Amino acid sequence: MSVSPDAGRRRRELDLLRIFACFIQFPFHTAKVFDFDPAYHVKNAVASGALDLFAAFSHVWRMPLFFFIAGFAAATALSSRTTGFFVFDRFKRLLPPLLVGLLLFAPAIKYLERLGGIDLRPSGLRHPPGPFHENYLDFYYGFFTHLNQFTWSHLWFLVYLLLFTLLFTGLMRRIALSYDRWRGHVGWLLAPALIAAAAEILLRPRFGDLPNLSSDFANLTIEVTCFLMGAIVSRQPRIEAVVTARPLSLLALGFLSFAVYYAGQAGLPHDVAPPFWALGARGIAAWCFVAGLLGLGRRWQRPHGAFDRYMTEATLPLYVLHHLPVVALAFIVVPLEMALWLKAAVICLGSITVTFAAYHLIVRPFGPTRFLFGLKPRRR
């Protein structure tokens, strides 16, 4: 076995990026309430161009970043663990919060969505012909017995991670045991961007953007690419040096590519695909932001304080918990006579408060809830 000399050292920049990706969920999902895309659980009657821009910008890179970090962590773990132990540990950590989320949070999100006159299905957005009056208990039963009513909401990320664990652990193991054997080359910067651009151009117009697994081929291609690149970068220091050598240049190219994409899709109906050059720019932007943020994280090293330790453990439970407070607060606030920006502030800050309170007071202190939300037992 070839093990890196720093196999036991925790990569603090990855913790920092994970914390950053966790926090971005709150303003992102808040912005979805007010953007131009009709496919969200609760929508404000008046949209905001600024929040549409922020939602589109965040959507390009936030989930590719999550998958890159997950691949990085998986290969690092496999460099010092057996395959069987890794798969068992991954399922022990991800399956309980997935089941908790599906039982407690996803039905409530879908119920609020239906009360608001929206029906977002795996096949796409549907506007029901009449009002929705079903009580929650009847709806809850139907949620799990009628496929067209079921949704996993934001929990699709955990489903995809578990699927990637089953499909790619063998390959990840080979990558994990090949420490520092590959040459660094600028091709490692170009290949993921080209793959992502090709997926956007060839697959996005046909299969759309919904994470329904059955036909989510554009997202799956990009996410698998980032997942495997995270594994490769974690085990090949020379490639990592190439990928992270110019973070500001990569971020600048990411912003430029996103601007090209946003300009290309501006004003188009959401059921009409942007031109191919705009879609290609979106794919390039996704990888440039992931690589650029990794390089920026490596350069911005700082002492690992109490906040970092708290948040490093909290990111998975917070991800599972955060979406229902956003949707519930949006359902309450959107009908009120308030300025749009005040509504957005109440939803965003209120959901942060509720989510952190639930984590800190209910999940973090107790052994059973820690297990159910993917945390290890507390150290005594």
In brief, what are we looking at here?
Helix content is 69%, strand content 2%.
- Give the strand line-up of the largest sheet: 1-2
Give the C-alpha Rg. 21 Å
What count of structural domains?
1
Report the order of strands and helices.
Answer: HHHEEHHHHHHHHHHH
Which structural class matches the secondary elements?
A: mainly alpha
Fraction of residues in H or I helices: 55-70%
Largest sheet: 2 strands, antiparallel
Subunit organisation of the chains:
single chain
End-to-end CA span: 34 Å
Mean pLDDT: 92
Strand content: under 5%
How would you characterize the overall build of this protein?
The protein has 380 residues and is an all-alpha fold. The chain has one domain (33-301). Helices cover 69% and strands 2% of the residues. The protein is built from 14 helices and two strands, in the order H-H-H-E-E-H-H-H-H-H-H-H-H-H-H-H. The protein has helices at 12-34, 49-78, 83-115, 136-145, 156-176, 187-202, 204-207, 217-235, 237-243, 247-265, 276-299, 306-333, 340-363, 367-372; strands at 119-121, 124-126. A two-stranded antiparallel sheet has the order 1-2. Strand 1 and strand 2 (124-126) form a beta hairpin. Helix 1 (12-34) crosses helix 11 (276-299), helix 3 crosses helix 4 (136-145) and helix 5 (156-176) runs parallel beside helix 8 (217-235). The protein is globular. The model has no long low-confidence stretch (mean pLDDT 92).
